[in-house]
Specification:
By secondary structure, the protein is of the alpha+beta class. It contains seven helices and ten strands.
């Protein structure tokens, strides 16, 4: 058996190349549950509201921090209009002919955050929501101490206005990058943001154990 020079880990056997197993790098682990880290991150960011359980929206796993608009909720209950999950129906609320009669958004979304092991995963999850408001990533402290993070993550996070919170091995959190909401124009209300609001409204009612209409 001959080892080809300059290709450590590759061996030529009977004219074929065989790769030896490379050293396995253990995956980065989160120091606590996503719900715990989301709660801690929301406090660090100064986001005041209910930290809702992690949920999949727009194909991304995120935690939303929101407040219920109690006056709007009372009005919608009186009219028998609870949360509406059907995206097609919600999309019609932004049409000019229906805008005047559509129910008002019943949730104030304070911010959306993603708890992730790597910044690329966290960024992919939060960027779609950053178009509408505050968004942040929660990452293990070890993930923010790399050249890849400094060179690849920070410039992109600043361009999207994302905040970054790091979590130490003891699950204590600190702000690594403040969000830059004031420097970016946000998209106006559209069918996507209205549907997101309905999903959050439904989660809020479940968290408060309130009637849905």
């Amino acid at each position: 058996m001959a080892v080809t020079p300059g290709h450590t880990g590759d061996a030529v056997v009977a004219g074929k190349t065989r790769s030896f197993p490379t050293r396995v790098v253990p995956p980065v682990e989160l120091p606590a549950s996503a719900s715990y880290l989301a709660e801690a991150a929301a406090m660090q960011l100064g986001w005041r509201g209910v930290v809702l359980p992690e949920v999949t929206m727009l194909g991304r796993r995120v935690c939303v921090v929101a407040r219920l608009r109690t006056d709007v909720h009372a009005e919608r209950i009186a009219c028998g209009i609870g949360p509406v999950a059907d995206r097609t129906t919600v999309a019609t609320w932004t049409w000019p002919e229906f805008a005047a009669t559509a129910p008002a958004p019943a949730a104030d979304i304070v911010g959306v955050l993603s708890v992730a092991r790597h910044w690329r995963t966290g960024m992919a999850a939060t960027v779609p929501f950053a178009r509408y408001g505050e968004a942040a990533m929660v990452l293990p402290a070890s993930a923010v101490l790399t050249k890849d993070y400094v060179d690849g993550c920070l410039p992109r996070a600043r361009s999207y206005g994302l905040a970054i919170v790091s979590a130490d091995t003891d699950a204590s959190v600190s702000l690594d990058l403040a969000g830059q909401r004031g420097e970016r124009a946000l998209l106006p209300q559209d069918p996507v943001s209205r549907w997101i609001n309905e999903m959050v409204y439904e989660q809020l009612l479940a968290s408060y154990d309130l009637p849905v209409g």
